[in-house]
Amino acid sequence: MHFADAAAAVRAGSLSVLSVGGICIAQSLKIPHDHKQADFDKIIRQLLETHNARAVIIFAYDEDIRGILNASKRADQVGHFLWIGSDSWGAKNSPIQGLEDAAIGAVTILPKRATVEAFDMYFTSRTLENNRRNVWFAEFWEENFNCKLMSSSKKEDTSRKCTGQERIGTDSKYEQEGKVQFVIDAVYAMAHALHNMQKDLCPDQSGVCGEMEHAGGKKLLKYIRSVSFNGSAGTSVTFNRNGDAPGRYDLFQYQMNINNTLGYKVIGQWTETLQLHIDEMQWPNGEMEIPSSVCSQPCKTGQRKKMVKGMPCCWLCEPCDGYQYQYDETSCKLCTYNMRPNGNRTGCQPIPIVKLEWHSPWAVIPVFLAMLGIIATIFVMATFIRYNDTPIVRASGRELSYVLLTGIFLCYIITFVMIATPDIAVCSFRRIFLGLGMCISYAALLTKTNRIYRIFEEGKKSVSPPKLISPTSQLAITSSLISVQLLGVLIWFGVDPPNTIIDYDEQKTINPDKARGVLKCDITDLQIICSLGYSILLMVTCTVYAIKTRGVPENFNEAKPIGFTMYTTCIVWLAFIPIFFGTAQSAEKLYIQTTTLTISMNLSASVALGMLYMPKVYVIIFHPELNVQKRKRSFKAVVTAATMSSRLSHKPSDRPNGEAKTELCENVDPNSKLQKCLFRVIGGT
């Protein structure tokens, strides 16, 4: 800032808080004209709002400077602020007298100046007699010599009368005002400009011509800025295009001298460039390093600057949180849906992809159960094939038993399909086998229970057998029920071909470090339930028939084991539904739902295998003496015994030893299709 700017600022009375490092004004405060002590205290409090901005430039009069320094002492902030004084402070002692401790380290400037000896000779020779043209000179005389010239004088602090014989510099202390040189140079600059203007506009005249009188201020300013001459101090006087003269300043610092006294010391100068002797500078509170003065510290990596309103170089550091990364100094941006911020949040990186692994605890348990179930199913099937023509196997309905065992086997197999790494083939198999195993199982059981129900209902009315109870009919009914499931799957394939997706929403946690993309088949929860829905419908229908045939004597059929199987299966699936849908929003959704689904299917298959086939296998292997054909009866006896047994089952008091049993077997005639069919249907186990 040059002299003219400094002078204007001093007249306004202001302070600017610097945030250094590419100089920036953190605050700009004004000192009120009619100031009080509280005004200075308020200014200090405002300066402390930007606590890290310690450098304060002061453009103020001496008394204002004293007010600021005093306020800093009252706030116990001596040594906190780094004062930079304008040329109004310069190297004067009056602003800091009695406040030296608060001013230590202050850096001040003064324009480079030289003493004009001719002015000293002129001014010291001025008296009341030879300087009457200056109307303020008499007032100056009274102040300078502390006397009164006349009784009407306004000076009231003394009664001593001036003699008029006092001499400046002899009877009073005199020191040339520092700006005399610049005033002289300013007058000469105007004179040179007018001279050059007169030469250009009035070449043939002396003095001011008409054209010069109407030239205007803008043209005169152009001539002023064009002057160039040697000034009173012997230095050149020129102006740049902005009208500023070359800056030439001396830099001072108020510090402790070698002899332990405080004073101003020249620490550098400015003549076109800065020449600063940093090693000769001292800092408050004995600081050895150059103090920093910044409104706000630089933000860390991954933080953005939130600018403070009204303070252009002050900001708050806000971290880029969530899935944001630092886009530039002042803004954060969201990563794309499949990305997350890197460690220092300077960019984005792909979200890791996960899937259900074979070694995961969520997979180990279902796989273990499925392997046990597969081994048990193969064992039962092998036993039935080995003893295919024995009465127990024949009485179980061989054809439907093999169909049911196939469905149970598929229920166990689906565990491996659900855990396998998703691809087009795996996703296709999931759609096919997800509901197929259960569908086959419950279609076979439904056919059995429906047949039993129809036979005994018909037996109450007549001795004629109902229709569609032959093995071929049973297989046809079962196949038609299964075909509905396959048709649904075929339509599903056509409408929505199988595909794999990466779901980034399922495990998109609040902490992006834990975010994962889940590789899975493009099958929604609703589609899974729809795929299982038909099987569940078969299961419910089968349960209804099991309830209806619960009164049938146990030795006539498998109604009661089927009933227990269906009751248990319903409980398993009633527990499955809330668990499956209750975890829809969980970050572990993939694992919980897959494990729940596979375990539910394993349990359903195990219940059917254990209740329907394990007792038969036990008898076949460990009690072969019971696996023999019983005595035979006629068809009429069969129907009559079945009806009576049904009635007796409701009267336990009439049974010998509390139990009544009726045995049915085939007719003696092996060619009797009806009797043979009834044996298969209701033959004792």
Provide a quick synopsis of the model.
One of its GO terms (cellular component) is plasma membrane. The protein is α+β, with helices and mostly antiparallel strands.
Structure, described:
The protein has 685 residues and is α+β, with helices and mostly antiparallel strands. The chain is 45% helix and 15% strand. The chain is built from 20 helices and 19 strands. It has helices at residues 3-12, 37-49, 62-74, 100-103, 117-124, 137-145, 180-201, 210-213, 217-225, 361-386, 391-395, 398-419, 424-459, 471-495, 525-548, 559-582, 589-612, 614-622, 635-648, 673-682, and strands at 14-19, 24-30, 55-59, 82-85, 107-111, 229-230, 236-237, 248-256, 262-271, 273-276, 303-308, 311-319, 324-328, 331-334, 339-341, 348-350, 353-354, 500-507, 516-521. The strands form six sheets. Strands 2-1-3-4-5-8-9-10 form an eight-stranded mixed beta sheet. Strands 17-19-18 form a three-stranded mixed beta sheet. Helix 4 links the parallel strand 4 and strand 5. Helix 13 (424-459) packs antiparallel against helix 14. The longest helix has 36 residues, at 424-459. Residues 1-12 and 632-685 have low confidence and may be disordered. It is a multi-pass membrane protein. Residues 362-636 form the G-protein coupled receptors family 3 profile domain. Belongs to the G-protein coupled receptor 3 family. This is G-protein coupled receptors family 3 profile domain-containing protein. The chain crosses the membrane at residues 362-388, 400-420, 432-453, 526-547, 559-581, 601-623.
